Amino acid sequence: MPPLPPSLPIFDPRTVPVVGVDAHLPRVATAAQQPDALRQRFAAPPPWTPEIRREPKFADRAPAQAAVLVPIVLHERPTVLLTERTANLSTHSGQVAFPGGRSDPEDRDAAATALREAQEEVGLPPERVEVLGQLSTYITGTAFIVTPVVALVQPGAALTPNPDEVADVFEVPLDYLLDPAHHQRHLLQWQGQQREWFAMPYQDGEHMRFIWGATAGMLRNLYRFMLA
């Protein structure tokens, strides 16, 4: 993947002021987060509207199709598996992300891309994954048209992260991410343009997992889908 142009903003998102927290919004019911309830919701999706469809454009580059896996791990308290990208990647280095990436011509569909990338990035075997469905596409500021593929994952897989792409793999409780009391709004002014995004910081033992940007935006859309 070619390097991005220098016009991209460079900043530490943790230092950007929080302008709001959505604690006034309802959380998704625990019962709705159980495996059978998730299966039923994706089998017959309700009418819903994504809250975020597109980020402000920051890269003058051709759009590229991509897909990510939103892996819900079936512990007694379901979790979402996430990665921390390595610092040497040309896009979104060091950020928290779902397993995923650019679509290949050989990929049958977005689910095939997401499953392939999850296996390549973290060693997640496709046979342990039950694809439920997709959320609306999410267009990043770097011109990736991302399809989030939501899936259930059997716990206990021995993951093998690819050290060239993944610095760490961790899990966050699904009910934490679907509680808007943990959804922070951040606002940045850059070159006359206003950029607002969500962040969902999570204290994971000694690690503060700062989930923000596209990953948080897609999780916010999942929240809206689950609440519809």
Structural class: alpha+beta
* Coarse shape: globular
How many DSSP E strands? 13
Distance between the termini: 37 Å
Tally of contiguous helical segments: 4
Helix content: 10-25%
Describe the structure.
The protein has 228 residues and is α+β, with helices and mostly antiparallel strands. The protein contains 4 helices and 13 strands. The strands form 3 sheets. Strands 2, 3, 4, 5, 6, 7, 8 and 9 form an 8-stranded mixed beta sheet that branches. Strands 1-10-11 form a 3-stranded antiparallel beta sheet. A two-stranded antiparallel ribbon has the order 12-13. A hairpin with a 5-residue loop joins strand 2 and strand 3. The chain is globular and about 50 Å long. 32% of the residues are buried.
List key phrases describing it.
18% helix, 8-stranded mixed beta sheet, 4 helices, 228 residues, 3-stranded antiparallel beta sheet
Summary, kept brief:
By secondary structure, this protein is an alpha+beta fold. It starts with 17 loop residues before the first strand and ends with a helix.
Question: What's the topology here?
Answer:
Elements: E1 18-21, H1 35-43, E2 64-73, E3 79-85, E4 96-97, E5 100-102, H2 110-122, E6 129-134, E7 138-139, E8 144-153, E9 166-173, H3 174-177, E10 184-190, E11 193-199, E12 202-204, E13 207-209, H4 213-227
Parallel strand pairs: 2-8
Antiparallel strand pairs: 1-10, 2-3, 2-5, 3-4, 3-9, 6-8, 7-8, 10-11, 12-13
